[in-house]
Amino acid sequence: MATSTTSTLPESRTEPDGSAVIRVLSYNIRSMRDDREALARVIGACEPDLVLVQEAPRFFRWRKHAAWLAARSGLVTLGGGATASGPMLLCSLRVTVERTQDVLLPRTPGLHQRGFATAVVRIGGVRLGVLSCHLSLQREERHAQGGMLLERLKEMDVPHAVAGGDLNERPDGRTFRRLAGELQDCWAVKPWGGEYTSTPDRPHQRIDALFATPGIEVLGCGVPLGLPDADLRAATDHLPVLAALRVPAS
């Protein structure tokens, strides 16, 4: 496992040919039930253009909590939250929003409602689809949701897309392998930082991931290791996944 800080990952920029280098962060924030200030510091330190959140606040005054986190992290809310049953999207002011859509997935009786937070955005000369997910704990429902994720990306009708979230499954699992069979598993393509996302006190498994469609160049992806351990442990019960991607001009 290579050591690094967020400064060793390529910074966001727009290239002369219109392509864009972007930073994408995926993070399960456990409904902001932990240290909110530590959470905002972690997100802000990663300097993301897009944040794919899981377990966003969903109940009383959830929009206010989401807006607080975005503002405290130097971002704005893009979509999702309670209306997507947990997944949410944040973005920097570098991002122009074309459209957003929150998708509720079919629910198995007795299990939690799941959903996708999706958007189509423009960054520089790039048009990009974005999807945040938190897949089921139940194996068969999770596998079906993996298929729905792939279908949703196709239905967005964009030249390039990124998707990510808490998969509740390790890379050798059936659903994880299904996604990695059609998309680029960014950590596997260009490892950077740390691999394991769960748990902050004892990282031992990779159940959170970022994926990119073919044609996007992965410049590095992993858990940023240069952030204060105290903040990472206090912020939530997952570690963040940060990727730098070069997306061709549309």
TrEMBL record:
Its cofactor is Mg(2+); Mn(2+). SUPFAM superfamilies: DNase I-like. The keyword Transmembrane does not apply. Keywords: DNA damage, DNA repair, Endonuclease, Hydrolase, Magnesium, Metal-binding, Nuclease. GO terms for molecular function: endonuclease activity. It holds the Pfam family Exo_endo_phos. Residues 25-238 form the Endonuclease/exonuclease/phosphatase domain. Gene3D superfamilies: Endonuclease/exonuclease/phosphatase (3.60.10.10). It comes from the Bacteria. The keyword Magnesium applies. This is Endonuclease/exonuclease/phosphatase family protein. It comes from Streptomyces albidochromogenes.
